[in-house]
Amino acid sequence: MTKKTSRAILFAVLAAALYALNAPVSKLLLGRVPERMMAAFLYLGAGVGMGAVKLIGRGRRERSLRRDDLPYVIGMIALDIAAPILLMLGLRRTTPETAALLNNFEIVATSLIALILFRETISRRLWLAIVLVTAASALLSVEDAGSLRFSAGSIYVLLACVCWGFENNCTRRLSDRSPLDVVIVKGLFSGAGALGIAFFAGERLPGAMDALAAMLLGFVAFGMSIFFYIRAQRDLGAARTSAYYALAPFIGAGLSLAIFRDMPGATFFLALAIMIAGAYLASSDGKPA
User: Fold this and answer.
1) Are 201 and 73 in contact (CB under 8 A)?
2) For 100-111, what is each residue's pLDDT tens digit?
3) pTM of the entire structure?
4) CB-based contacts of 13, cutoff 8 Å, min separation 6
């Protein structure tokens, strides 16, 4: 393993650890901040925070976004408006540890989209991981096993993962551009779009301290996380970066259990075991199928 690859893996793991804060802390804030407003302030916090980093920083000069990047930028922004709104709607309706664990479905979405649309290679191990993560996601989503009724909250979270799967692949096309520029554009425009949707839906602005808390969470869990994710994608590709990023749901689930002390049932722990196996396989190097 080269030094460049090791550094890229470190960036992917760091991105996962920062994003893991999102589910438990957002769940706490959703008691005072409406779902769409929460999504808006998360991304606005990412955009504003990374804009400040760029102003005060003296990092190396990197390639800026260009006109021919516009289709991927538009796709990225649109998907980043939809995904966090869906996630917040899901968090409102399910437990934060379940929502955190379901985020692993992003591996499935990202990998399959990378294969179908961009012809990225998927190893045999990753194929098996996709099967395991999908099975565990189905377990977590079933609300009533007798009637096969699915939890609305889980469905919202899974739809958010599909949106982020597409978005990850759009972002992959921009991974050789300045990560700061990508995050700033993503945060400001996606946040503004979500804010417009929130106003249209009749939601009111939260209090100043709640809005500031949401923006601070957005800066850390979205801004810094996305920044390191993009840096990792340069050398790992969308599928492998997403695989290492699979640590985030487990960290998030652990934090949620520690904060809310709401012991889940046996189904959760069965799904957790399957998710761990899937995430391990996904993050293991394997030869292409």
Assistant:
1) no
2) 989 888 888 988
3) 0.82
4) 244, 247
